[in-house]
Amino acid sequence: MTVGRGRTLLLLALLVALASLPLWAPRFWIYIGTQALIFAIFAMSLDLLLGYAGLASFGHAAFYGVGAYACGLLALRHVDALIPLLLIGALASAAVAVPIGALSLRATGIYFLMLTLAFAQILWGLAVNWTSLTRGTDGLIGVPRPALPGAGALGFTLNERGPFFILCLAVAVLVFLLLEALTRSPFGRTLEGIRENERRMRALGFPTFRYRLAVFVVGGAIAGLAGSLAAMSNGFATPDLLYWTVSGLVLVAVVVGGSRSLVGPVLGAFLVLIAQLGLSTFVDRWELVLGALFIAFVLFLPRGLVGLVRRA
Amino acid sequence: MADQLERYLKSKLSDGVDRRDFLKLGLTATGMAAVAACGGNPTSGSSGSSGPTGPEFKVGAVLPESGVYAELGKSITNGMQMYFDSVANQAGNRKITMVSADEQTALASAVAATKKVVEQDSVDMVAGYVSSPNAAGNRDYLDGQKMPTLIANAGVNSLSRAAKSPFIYRTSFSNWQPSHPMGTYVAEKLGKKKIQLVYAKYGAGLESVAAFKETFTAAGGTIVGPDVATPFPNNGDQTPFVQAINTGEIDGIYCFMSGTDAVSFLKKAAELGTLKKVDLVSGSGFFVEQDVLAAITDAAPLGALTGLHWALTLDTKENQDFVSKYSKKFAGRQADVFAVQGFDTARVIVDALNAVKGKTDDKLNFMKAISHVAFQSPRGDFKFDPNTNNVVQTIYIRKVVHNSKLGWTNQVIDHYPGVADPGK
């Protein structure tokens, strides 16, 4: 019980520190913080699949990218409302996740991983070649941020960095609480059972395929939500967002942070993003350093950053 | 005939300008030495110190240091460094320093790199951008920040048209520029009227062949379909694309590809003997630039004609000087068109800083000084077009030859001076 209370206190302290960021940090840090929070939501959605359901998806960027494009397309057609723009990303990705999941989940392990990778690359190809909708390699640029109802009266807009950061933080906290509740629910417990021994769960009468498909779609939807925020934050949606390297990067974030913990992927996302930015200034081949870090974590700290805390 | 005469006169005239400009250069150098001796700042009078006394002028160089465009980024950085070094890294009584940030390949990285130099390093201006989506994707931010910016490579047409900004000027080219004169040249000068288009299917490829098509069809040429459009970048086999060239029905091809795409395509075409079956291989100069020729050597399409704003063999004093000094400074590395763009970008910065005497607080005034910069570049006459904020330059028609001294290279055989983007 004390461990649980310690964790809650730690999380609250982290939340307060983050929430105060716009008050004291330089503008550039707020931008980095925003990017990291969005990436953290994306990483948490992968942790749901990888950590809790044991589904090693290597095509998770597809849902992130589809969410970004859906939000971008709608915002460029003059839809100026926050909630619909956020939801369209989640809905579009969920819709795409249903057929991809239905097909990929027939396989397991490495075959599942390769199938998700293949589907994601197909969607990437679509984003590059369907120029009438996606504008090809140039991508959708100039995606506007929506107005926040009532914010005008209080004298701020989402175009300012501080308020947008707080919006991302709020969405991240909601996603965290949702996933925490989900993983602790009977649904989550069933998923863990399926991860450990699917045959036994089936023998117990659980429709395991439907459970796995459901969690795949929920994971896709949350990745799409992160994609929506990314499109608003950056003001663009480009094919790069769907590329397999993004799937790889988010996988690294989850593993380095520590899967099956939700907090781990958040820490991992911050670490990977800051490493990418910081390292690329000093070394040409920053991916090499990140790769070495990844290998070191897998070998010596298989439970990630969170494992460090838990061990202590 | 009349038009040939005109071109001859113009080329003679520009020879004259070269010489005059060389004298001017000498005078400027002496003048600068004198100014430096007086302390560099006309207002500070006889302070006697030799270094600049004004605040540091920071240039944020957002260029790829990793990824597929790393070599292009390196050439541009080298070119900039070479010019800054030649003026002792100072202008308008301010010390010039370059702060670099890695553009990488994806737009998200380029956006982060831009924000880093602008907000974290508080640079006074930004220069760089190799890839077009990265330049276009940062346009709104740079414009909103009123950040003086020079685009040193990215050719996307819109930056000279609908998306132009009073704070963003381009020293490289618009995709339209190298290809537009080629259409006229192929149809009128060469009399080749049936051409098939071959291109990498992305922004630069599409915009280049569209510009060619515009003048080519206007001069009575016919585009023979279907177009051969390869994926970009094409990491797979080029065979089906090479075989899609309709050798029986065409006079030739017009091609836009660059870098590794051009290398794999030309190698495969040489292997299959396809290009030998057509009278004319033409294209945008990037298709057979020095980087490509060095990689394919004897698979090079001998006699291919391409348009570009520079050539290694360009026989002007400025260019030969630049080419030899560049290779001396960077351990034998051969100069390329990207290095020239970097060199000119740095020169624009220096000339503009001198013109405003280092006072850059009034951003619009500084941009005005940038717009007035004009000089003799290694590529020929360099000036900006006030309508498009894009460089106005000569487009050279070059022929692929094997030269005993330089190996495979491009020989200049004709030129179209003063090519300016139409702006719409």
Automatic annotation (TrEMBL), chain A:
The keyword Repeat does not apply. It is found in: Cell membrane. The keyword Acetylation does not apply. It is a multi-pass membrane protein. The chain crosses the membrane at residues 29-50, 57-76, 82-103, 110-130, 164-182, 209-229, 241-259, 266-283, 289-309. Keywords: Cell membrane, Membrane, Transmembrane, Transmembrane helix. It comes from the Bacteria. GO terms for molecular function: branched-chain amino acid transmembrane transporter activity. One of its GO terms (cellular component) is plasma membrane. This is Branched-chain amino acid ABC transporter permease. The lineage of its organism: Bacteria, Bacillati, Candidatus Dormiibacterota, Candidatus Dormibacteria, Candidatus Dormibacterales.
UniProtKB/TrEMBL annotation, chain B:
Residues 57-401 form the Leucine-binding protein domain. InterPro entries: BCAA_transport, Leu-bd, Peripla_BP_I, TAT_signal. Belongs to the leucine-binding protein family. This is ABC transporter substrate-binding protein. It holds the Pfam family Peripla_BP_6. Gene3D superfamilies: 3.40.50.2300. It comes from Candidatus Dormiibacter inghamiae. Keywords: Signal.
